[in-house]
Amino acid sequence: MAVAEQQPLATPPKAAEARVPTVIVDDVHIVYKVYGAGTGKGSATAALSRLLLRRGSPNVRRVHAVRGVSFTAYRGEAIGIIGSNGSGKSTILRAIAGLLPPESGKIYTDGQPSLLGVNAALMNDLTGATNVMLGGLAMGMTQEEVRERYQGIVDFSGINEKGDFISLPMRTYSSGMAARLRFSIAAAKNHDVLMIDEALATGDRAFQRRSEARIRELRKEAGTVFLVSHNNTSIRDTCDRVVWLEKGELLMDGPTDEVIKAYEKHTK
Ligand SMILES: Nc1ncnc2c1ncn2[C@@H]1O[C@H](COP(=O)(O)OP(=O)(O)OP(=O)(O)O)[C@@H](O)[C@H]1O
């Protein structure tokens, strides 16, 4: 009986590298409501009579800050968000962080996104050292972990380069020093999704380099990083993809070089 020639088993095609989505922004609109934006109707009596008569405030102004924005971010990406002043960059980050509800549309996130903004809350009357401890605990580290990383955080921030500033209250820091400390605390932890809003702009060049290197590390450690910045060099050095917002709309989303080139042409 003839034996069928054994065919070598075809090697299955190597599974394509699975891209894991971390943030999905789906047709999101965000509207701020500004109360008391008109004149003359702000008195307590007027407010009371509105309550009693169940009439809405006549002075609510709506600012439609984000208009139908959609994109998906994947694990391991660093995405720059650019656009002129007031284009909605900070607003979309705050919404991804869960701090602002969208008027319509949906935002899905994998893990808890951390927003590191220029206004991230640290206590001005407490020393830098206490803020490092509190900030670490607030990010979910144990006391032991914060103690282990304390020196690394202080060294990274460079706060003590010109004397023992870490033991002084934060209100004695310049805005650049405070921003450096905030970034150093946040960067001490690996985040699923880390969003950085202009935090690098205030540091000097040496600090910016350290931060950029740390952002690259955070990406390797499988997180997703968003960076809002007006500094195209920072964006070029850290991000492989850029989302360009203008007047609340997404104008372009693509490889860094392409988008920055188009943006520079637009702003010239
Ligand atoms: N708390 C708020 N209340 C009302 N309107 C707001 C508020 N915050 C922002 N806006 C408005 O929303 C729009 C988008 O603002 P946003 O701060 O997101 O812009 P941005 O792109 O981050 O600007 P910039 O580059 O100047 O930081 C602007 O028109 C702004 O006036």
UniProtKB/TrEMBL annotation:
Cell membrane recorded as keyword: no
GO molecular-function terms, A-Z: ABC-type transporter activity; ATP binding; ATP hydrolysis activity
Gene Ontology cellular-component terms listed: membrane
InterPro entries according to UniProt: AAA+_ATPase, ABC_transporter-like_ATP-bd, ABC_transporter-like_CS, ABC_transpr_TagH-like, Bact_Polysacc_Export_ATP-bd, P-loop_NTPase
Matching SUPFAM superfamilies: P-loop containing nucleoside triphosphate hydrolases
Database matches in PROSITE patterns: ABC_TRANSPORTER_1, ABC_TRANSPORTER_2
Family: Belongs to the ABC transporter superfamily.
Location of the ABC transporter domain: 48-268
Protein name as catalogued: Teichoic acid transport system ATP-binding protein
Alphabetized UniProt keyword annotations: ATP-binding, Nucleotide-binding, Transport
